[in-house]
Amino acid sequence: MAGMEPVITSPAPANPACVINCTWYGEDGALRAIDLDSISDVLQEDSKGFVWVGLYEPSDAVLDKVQEEFNLHPLAIEDTRKAHQRPKIETYGNSLFVVVHTAQVVDERIRYGETHAFLGPRFLLTVRHGASLSYAPVRARLERERGLLSMGPSFCLYAVLDAVVDNYLPITDSFRDTLDTLEKDIFAETYKRRTVIRLYELKRELNKMRLAVAPLQDALAQLQRNQAQLINEEVRLYLRDVQDHAARVNDAIDTLREMLGTALSVNLSLVTLAQGETVKQLGAWAALLAAPTLVTSWYGMNFTHMPELAGRFAYPLLMIGVGAVCVVLYRLFKRSGWL
């Protein structure tokens, strides 16, 4: 019955530190923490329960052990051992191998990791590498809802994928908030070099994020179409919802990338316009200074016969003439917007 607490029948056994959880889930809602060595024995004892094992950056010995217990394909184990895989879905006999990229904000930067999941008829093995939030809250929610656990390990896989995709949403929201703040700096009166640097960093982070999310949509679509009987038919509906969320995240990333590209172009245009205004002002002041400089340089030549020097009011008239030229030029530049 949904909402009832699961029955825990034994304390957790000792497992290596990289084993985050190793739990057997019975059909009646009971659960029991087990050790890696007893996985195959437990599955033989109860023909209707399933096992969920969660690992974080496991050692080679632990991977060899789970390969033996679950009879996993060596190629899939080799991919998990090396990590650095692209998001994908592969079928190996009676098991599915799923790879998705995860994201986590660490020190105001996005760090990426991977989750490798092995889905079998009666088991789910999740292996986390790099930056990745724990799936403990996901397990806790499922353990509180016996009706969800009754759909088997495929629903647990859906819950993990849903958590991975939902974790992208707050990251895109934070990018949008940061862009809104930077837009105010873009249209400020003073140029800030840090604004351009931050815009570039955001676009770089979004490009990386798109490389993680875009292939995830194809992997989820492939998982829905997979003909293996490992995926509960009801779970396929839930997977479609996850794919919809992934498409929303991808659309948000594309929109933010376009907005960031536009913001960079606008910032460059505004800086160019500001520089043009400065050049215009410098040119206007240079013209104002050129008029008296031209006149004074003319009279600075050593000519003996300059008739205009003989007049009594020649010097005052010269000053008035130079001043008038400067005033006329100033008014012309002011009217044209150069000053």
TrEMBL record:
Keywords: Cell membrane, Membrane, Transmembrane, Transmembrane helix, Transport. It is a multi-pass membrane protein. The keyword Cell membrane applies. CDD domains: MtCorA-like (cd12830). It is found in: Cell membrane. InterPro entries: CorA_cytoplasmic_dom, CorA_TM1_TM2, MgTranspt_CorA/ZnTranspt_ZntB. SUPFAM superfamilies: CorA soluble domain-like, Magnesium transport protein CorA, transmembrane region. The chain crosses the membrane at residues 282-301, 313-333. Pfam families: CorA. It comes from the Bacteria. Belongs to the CorA metal ion transporter (MIT) (TC 1.A.35) family. This is Magnesium and cobalt transport protein CorA.
